[in-house]
Amino acid sequence: LGENSSTIDTKVTGSGEISLNSRYLIDALGAFRGDTTTFSCNGKVEACILKSDDEEDYLHVIMPLKS
Predict the structure, then answer these.
(1) Any alpha helices (H) in 1-67, and if so which ranges?
(2) Which of 4, 9, 25, 58 registers the highest number of CB atoms within 10 A of its CB?
């Protein structure tokens, strides 16, 4: 039980807030070999998609937390 906030260097288009399970996000980022990742979301309660810019044949889907 608790709360955690982290920051990373990003290029952002659009705006908004989304809550994700940090374990799922860390698992997704750990699966990619490249240095850059594209993170796409289409709303607060819709699936988020992570794609490595170096691996076109793999994507990772994470459902956000309802908050």
Answers:
(1) 22-31
(2) 25
